[in-house]
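Entry 14. Ran structure prediction on the chain below.
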Amino acid sequence: MKKIFYITFVFAVIAMGGCKKSDLDYVPQDQLSSNSFWKTEKDATLALNACYGYFSNAYTNAYDDGSTDNAYAQYPWESNATPIAAGNINATIDQGYGSRYVYIRRYNYFLDNVAKAPLSAAVMKRFVAEAKVLRAITYYDLARIFGPVPLLKTAYAEASETAVTPTPEADVINFAISEIQSAVADLNPAIVQSGRITSGAAWAFLARIQLQYQKYGNAVISAEKVKSLGYQLFRKNTLTADDLTDDFSNYLTFANAAERDKFYKGLASYEQQFWAANELDNKELILASQNISNSSYDYGNGLRTLFPSSDLGGWSSITPTQDLVNAYWTRNGDVFTPPAANVRATNYNSGKPNAAYIDEFKNRDTRLYASILFPGTPWGRINAGYSFAWGKGGGNNSATGYNFKKLVDPSPESSQNEWDGAQDFPIIRYAEVLLAFAEAKNELIGPDATIYAALDDIRTRSGMPAVNQTAINTKEKLRDFIRNERRIELAGEGQRYSDIRRWNIAKDVMKTTYDITNSIVQTRVWDNKFMLMPYPQTAIDRNANLKTAQSTKGY
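Output, structure tokens:
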């Protein structure tokens, strides 16, 4: 299907080597010496490919949604999402601090040694640029999660060299931004190469970082750079018989055949952009974690196991909350007004939903039907005649009453492979860039035609109406609209964790979650210190300089 880029063993071995030895010492037979490596372009390519291991298994970003009001992660042994959402946060948790520094060391080693390899000037520049952007992305992730962190820019031989005072968060971010800016001109400009850092990926990440840190003017510029490169939203303009498999007539009222056609094209366009069959020519996918099935080197995409319900062989590990389901617009683009929780429980009728319960899911946003399995949802593409029925209570059933459908490829190749789905996971896609552009520009100047155009591109792709500019006509109204649109469009992709923190709304949304019978799923507690995660105790034990910063963060 595609070349896999996560060949980590060779580079991991040489990166962790470097011991001094006399001239009489022989090269060990079980590892490579840096003096015997870097002899060919292939050596340098393998070393760079190892750096891309940072994106392997990126499908676990979905757990970040489980740390928010979007989803519930019911198994605490699978991730830190369960205790984070509950507010049980302390230094026993390592939210990726240690693993990210493994890659920081790998990038630094590569950058310090790649000049030894016999590369052409153009290839050398590109390889260095890709590694610099990877390092910048990793430092961004460290800073947004932990705040101040040690800023290590060169390789080291002894662990004691890393025991330095953490650099302020703002300085780490400025370093990351400057590194990407200095690298972008040397990157490949191709737009259909989602497994590598291209110039488009670099500009897209700049927009993400600048938006996160409220550098709105710069975020607009970076997003406009991406917009000028030729990326476009994935659209399926011709329907097949398979695309019409699922009958949604119980949930949608179509005025005519054109309205029906619009819905099914929107449904296919949104959900099928994540399928393996559409990866190679998908101009929406800017950067992805690439997967193949039946690989002897690594597992594939595991969401086929983590997302679906038990009757489909899944574990219901990460499931949508009622609050996320409520966030999807009505069919005409208005805010949905949900029934009271006790009324919903009555209408659900212990698993025998009445007509009033079905009404809650009638004429809603197309992306609801593409993303969420609610009781009664048809999904014949994964199993002929299938209709979702919630099996409450244990047995790998959803704890909330809903399962994710989005990001699950229902093709036989993917649906039959536990932990080994072939589909790629989107790390950043063009829809996010359009949303970043809209949000940043609105914060700068308020509503304008280019903002509405970006939002309308996203909405019409999924068969939804354009933004009602008469109603959504102020900066404040458009801000709320964009935030909800972002939540819907990017659900399950892991962006909500940072969004609720940068918008300072976590204190309002991290509330106790309930299932559709109005039973408590998880009691959640929020403390403002949770804006940043604590350094893990293992890191503090190695670097006493972290203690003061840990205390400053409130831990």
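The longest helix spans residues 121-146. Will compare against last week's run tomorrow.
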